[in-house]
Amino acid sequence: MAPNPANMHRKARGSCTHTTMDRVYSFRRTCDLCGSKSSMGFIYACSQDVADESAKAPISDHSPDYVPEHKSPRAELEWLGMSPSIIQQAEAGEYTAAQLDKLKAMRLNCIKTAAAQSAAQAAARSQRISNSTCSFQVCPRCRPTLVQRTYVSIESILADDAKALTPEEARSLPVHNVEVVKNIGLRAHASSSRSSGLKRKKEQADDSTSFQISKIQKYKNDYIRLRGLNNADNDSLSSSFNRHMNKLTGSMKDAISTESDDESDDPDRGQDANESEDAKKLRKAKAKNALLTMRELEVRVERNRKREREREASHGSDRARNDSHQVDPEENTEVGAGLALTEEAAELHTPDVTLIEKDPKDDEEVMMTAGDTTHISDILAQV
């Protein structure tokens, strides 16, 4: 499980330098560094300051519950802490038995009072020590090297102190698919795959934009063709129509870009992240109007196509008659005493070339054209 940054500032603690760690199997404990639960089912916990049940402090020799057996009166006086001068006077017989008993009772009372005060101070010290006991615990993801501190001594194994997991505990351990685990670290990083996905979306948006622009250009060409405009008329097309087409193309780009941005969750997308709501609404409204204008243009082009078909059907007979009177310009038509070389001359029945008789003054045959006369030899030479 990935670290939770929200918990790091309140869970982070100093690292433990102790040499003894235990592997504690639990899904409830959280890591002191990342604040997350271990995804592997166990956590490393410091056991250096954990008191052993078998290692308790021995009872003090001066404890009120401890009554030693004295082999001689001198040993009893020494255990009670009598001064050497009193011990010597007692051995010399300067004190009676009643006086010695009274001295012993007074000394024993002092010992009990001092022992009670020492016990209270020891309890306070023990409380401070328990509060400062190291309880550092960390997950294997944050400190993988702590596996070297989780050793078990041979004595513990021989003494059967290291208990094996019970079947119930073993069933609660996490189990992962081996096909998934063996590929960990070998696949591409998640951020790179996300970036590639966003890049593919952008490429698709660019392709869609290019397709829509080419579609607009096609509609424009159809509009010009159905209006019967030639190249010269196309060049002199009204500037308002050209501005309308350019504006429609730009709006279509914004429409495709808006659609691509809405599908992306990337905060650094094409539009400014700090764009106001009003600006977003205005941009989307322009994109919507561009799409509506596209549909209107489609209807207009289709209407013009229908009118063109109706006009062709109504003037079909006239065209047939005109086609019957048309003359192939590549063929020569005889008109009177000459030849009609052009379509206009054939329709007007005016010869382009006229053949005349021999000139009595010149034996050469000549050909006379409208307004000029050319010798056949000159025509052949030009050819």
Question: Which helices and strands, and how do they pair?
Answer:
Layout: H1 5-11, E1 21-25, E2 42-46, H2 73-79, H3 84-91, H4 97-131, E3 137-138, H5 154-158, H6 167-172, H7 178-181, H8 190-226, H9 231-235, H10 239-263, H11 277-314, H12 316-325, E4 333-335, E5 338-340, H13 343-348, E6 353-355, E7 366-369, E8 372-375, H14 376-382
Helix pairs in contact: 8-10, 8-11, 10-11
Quick overview of this protein structure:
Residues 191-210, 255-287, 302-364 are annotated as: Disordered. The protein is α+β, with helices and mostly antiparallel strands and 383 residues long.
Structure notes:
The chain is α+β, with helices and mostly antiparallel strands. The protein folds into four domains: 5-50 and 133-181, no CATH class; 73-120; 207-315; 333-382, no CATH class. The chain contains 14 helices and eight strands. A five-stranded antiparallel beta sheet has the order 4-5-6-7-8. It has a three-stranded antiparallel beta sheet with strand order 1-2-3, with no helix packed on it. Strand 7 (366-369) and strand 8 (372-375) form a beta hairpin. The longest helix is centred in the last third of the chain and has 38 residues, at 277-314. The protein is rod-shaped and about 180 Å long. The two termini are 94 Å apart.
